[in-house]
């Protein structure tokens, strides 16, 4: 149905300054003539037109004098998408039915979707036709191994087609990804620095945290600007062989960015959508060779060798279907990597490793050189078994640090990560040995302390499994930017004793 403004009197736009995250929201008075004439109700989906722009928004009804009858209020996301000015004239209409929702319903009932159906869903998501409730239904329907490898391939291709894609015109463009679930595993900036110092092209785009206390983009944002445009990203890569950017700012897979925001709210990270999310970003960024790191541990995201091998097979199958050269590393996920958990604390670990300081976390150093070495071997620069020593040599020589510094300068400058003003130290009640670490509980506490929204918040872990500690020796320190969140985190730590498993005089304790 074509829209003709003459059919309806315009309303005046008013900016209400309400943050509804990414979902555009419209506000009308309950006695608005438009509500009566068009039959609009609260939570209706409405097409909003303004000159040459339009969006689809969710309606909220106002039962007060906040608005005049001839006004329409806008959330921040709706106002910015329409690029409105105060009192701009807008027109409202019913949107066309969203056909692809029938495909979502089919998936809810267990039917397999084909390429055209998945492309239709993704296109409607990107065009703003789905409310959060529709996105949540799609995400949930695709969870619990509900997607076949064929569907994952089709979903990945649909996500790539719905956004921008970079072609570097090179035979080898490298990228890597860790599936997550392991706090502090911030190897990406180190790996990118090593590989680009070796002359390889690594246009790295990373996500913000979904269910963790920090994503690579959150951590890098404490050190430099990560919100690059596509043109800025190209410029940095052309100058320094690589970049460390936030994927959301360059719209390489915009559907994935929308799905991730709802996944974060649901605390869901389904396997099929994980693969599609990762590989769509890699393809869109122009990668030809990709290494996937899958940490395996009892409290990691992937908890068993069997589950890791299954996920690895799916990654390899889908990667091959998409024409990617893809390899998988199964790594130790029994405990956090490095000392910091949270953006700024992880950034400090990264700087210590790249500067090759004597106090740098040995496990983060070892894991980063292992991954970088495997990628050097994957493309044939080094013989099998010799890649890690080459990667370590690049750090030892200072070349990796120099390249990292140059990348940050090209992205807007290198800055010092912030420091939290509030801290709480958990000390050992007795002399003991550390037997185990709960990754999930530590991540929960770091998030309660404010991470990643508060970049300086998180946990500094002072011990590793197998360490022997003396009475009153610090085990971990919680960092927070305000006293209230520090208290939340400490209360949770007090109530949940199994964050660390200790052995005191031969007896296990929390």
Structural commentary:
- There is one protein chain.
- This protein has 510 residues and is of the alpha/beta class.
- The chain is built from 18 helices and 19 strands.
- A 6-stranded mixed beta barrel has the order 1-5-2-4-3-6. It has a 4-stranded antiparallel β-sheet with strand order 12-15-17-13.
- Helix 7 packs across helix 14 (362-378).
- The protein is globular, with a radius of gyration of 25 Å.
- The chain starts with 10 loop residues before the first strand and ends with a strand.
- Mean pLDDT is 92; it is low at 1-6.
What's the short story on this structure?
The protein is of the alpha/beta class.
Question: Helical percent range?
Answer: 25-40%
Strand order of the largest sheet: 1-5-2-4-3-6
Structural class: alpha/beta
DSSP, total strands: 19
Give the mean pLDDT. Answer: 92
**What radius of gyration results from the CA coordinates?**
25 Å
N/C terminus separation: 65 Å
| Main sheet attributes: strand count, strand direction, barrel closure | 6 strands, mixed, barrel
What is the topology?
Layout: E1 11-15, E2 25-29, H1 33-38, E3 45-50, E4 53-62, E5 71-74, H2 76-82, E6 89-93, H3 101-108, H4 115-126, H5 132-141, H6 149-161, E7 174-178, H7 188-197, E8 202-206, H8 216-221, H9 230-240, E9 242-246, H10 254-266, H11 271-284, E10 289-296, H12 305-321, E11 325-332, E12 340-341, H13 343-354, H14 362-378, H15 387-396, H16 399-410, E13 422-427, E14 432-437, H17 439-448, E15 458-461, E16 468-469, E17 474-480, H18 483-495, E18 500-504, E19 507-509
Parallel strand pairs: 1-5, 2-4, 7-10, 8-9, 10-11
Antiparallel strand pairs: 1-6, 2-5, 3-4, 3-6, 12-15, 13-17, 14-16, 14-18, 15-17, 18-19
Helix pairs in contact: 3-5, 4-6, 5-10, 6-11, 6-12, 7-14, 7-16, 9-16, 14-15, 17-18
């Amino acid at each position: 149905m074509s829209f003709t403004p003459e059919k309806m009197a315009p309303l005046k736009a008013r900016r209400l300054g309400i943050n509804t995250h990414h979902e555009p929201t419209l506000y009308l008075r309950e006695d608005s003539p438009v509500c009566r004439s068009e039959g609009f109700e609260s939570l209706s989906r409405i097409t909003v037109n303004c000159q040459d722009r339009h969006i689809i928004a969710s309606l909220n009804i106002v039962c007060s004098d906040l608005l005049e009858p001839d006004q329409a209020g806008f959330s921040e996301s709706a106002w910015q998408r329409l690029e409105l000015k105060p009192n701009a004239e807008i027109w409202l209409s019913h949107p066309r039915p969203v056909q692809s929702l029938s495909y979502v319903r089919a998936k809810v009932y267990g039917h397999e979707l084909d390429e055209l159906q998945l492309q239709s869903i993704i296109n409607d998501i990107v065009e703003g036709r789905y409310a959060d409730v529709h996105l949540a239904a799609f995400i949930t329907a695709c969870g619990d191994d509900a997607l076949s490898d064929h569907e994952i391939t089709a979903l990945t291709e649909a996500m790539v087609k719905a956004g921008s894609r970079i072609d570097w015109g090179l035979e080898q463009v490298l990228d890597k990804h860790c599936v997550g679930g392991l706090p502090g595993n911030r190897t990406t900036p180190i790996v990118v620095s090593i590989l680009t110092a070796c002359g390889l092209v690594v246009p790295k785009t990373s996500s913000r945290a979904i269910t963790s206390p920090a994503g690579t983009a959150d951590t890098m944002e404490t050190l430099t600007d990560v919100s690059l445009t596509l043109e800025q990203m190209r410029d940095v890569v052309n100058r320094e062989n690589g970049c460390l950017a936030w994927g959301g700012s360059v719209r390489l897979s915009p559907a994935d960015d929308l799905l991730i925001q709802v996944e974060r709210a649901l605390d869901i990270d389904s396997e099929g959508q994980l693969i599609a999310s990762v590989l769509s970003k890699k393809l869109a960024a122009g990668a030809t060779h990709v290494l996937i790191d899958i940490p395996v541990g009892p409290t990691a995201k992937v908890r068993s060798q069997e589950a890791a091998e299954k996920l690895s097979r799916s990654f390899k199958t889908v990667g091959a279907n998409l024409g990617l050269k893809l390899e998988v590393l199964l790594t130790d996920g029994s405990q956090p990597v490095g000392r910091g958990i949270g953006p700024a604390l992880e950034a400090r670990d990264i700087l210590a490793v790249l500067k090759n300081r004597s106090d740098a976390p040995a496990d983060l150093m070892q894991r980063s050189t292992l991954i970088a070495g495997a990628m050097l071997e994957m493309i044939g620069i080094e013989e099998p078994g010799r890649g890690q020593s080459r990667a370590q040599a690049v750090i030892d020589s200072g070349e990796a640090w120099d390249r990292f510094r140059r990348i940050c300068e090209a992205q807007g400058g290198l800055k010092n990560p912030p420091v939290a003003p509030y801290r709480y130290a958990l000390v050992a009640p007795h002399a003991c040995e550390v037997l185990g670490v709960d990754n999930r509980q530590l991540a929960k506490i770091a998030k309660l302390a404010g991470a990643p929204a508060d970049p300086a918040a998180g946990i500094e872990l002072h011990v590793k499994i197998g360490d022997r500690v003396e009475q009153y020796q610090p085990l971990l320190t919680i960092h927070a930017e305000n006293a209230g969140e520090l208290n939340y985190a400490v209360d949770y730590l007090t109530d949940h004793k199994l964050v660390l498993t200790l052995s005191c005089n031969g007896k296990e304790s929390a």
